[in-house]
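Blinded run. Sample ID left blank on purpose so nobody reads anything into the name before looking at the predicted structure. Input follows.
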Amino acid sequence: MSIVISFSVIEISAVRLLSTICTISICGVIVAALNPSLSDWLLLAAPCATASALLLLKRWWQGAEVDRNWIVIDGSNVLHWNGGIPKLETVKEVASTLAKAGLTPGVVFDANAGYKISGRYLHDKALGSLLGLPKDRVMVVPKGMPADPMILQVARDYDAPIASNDRFRDWVNDYPDVLTSKDPVRGGYKDGKLWLSL
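Blinded prediction complete.
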């Protein structure tokens, strides 16, 4: 059962809605300009056309977000890669190394990640700030919910590989496509240096 709304579907729906509003508004401007008896409609159609066109332009400008080469980092797993001790610096180094390799990292943490590294709950924005990542690329799952299905769903939605040493055996039946489509990026530390199976 899918527990995550596909962000890509929401994005596509928003762009379609904006395109529809823009098209209708431009048609309204043309009709009102050609028919003087409908000139009052210019007061509504012109601002709608302008605003929707500007929003579409903004989406187009940021369109590279959709085409990025995403990778999902299993934050709670990667926290322990360096000697088994949870360190946020490990996740930061992995994210930085993956970014240097041309990937765009997004990180998903269990709700208890903040307690492991700071003794208190940390939300998406706080962890994003500590990692040097935008808050929209960091997700902390709600308390009582495992992060694994979120990680697998995000990987499915963005057709992305996963950076984790976890085999996700409990989720093989629910996400066989994700677990067989792309090789996971495994990693760890050897002689104090990070290695990744890129």
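Unblinding after everyone has recorded impressions. The chain has a mean pLDDT of 84.
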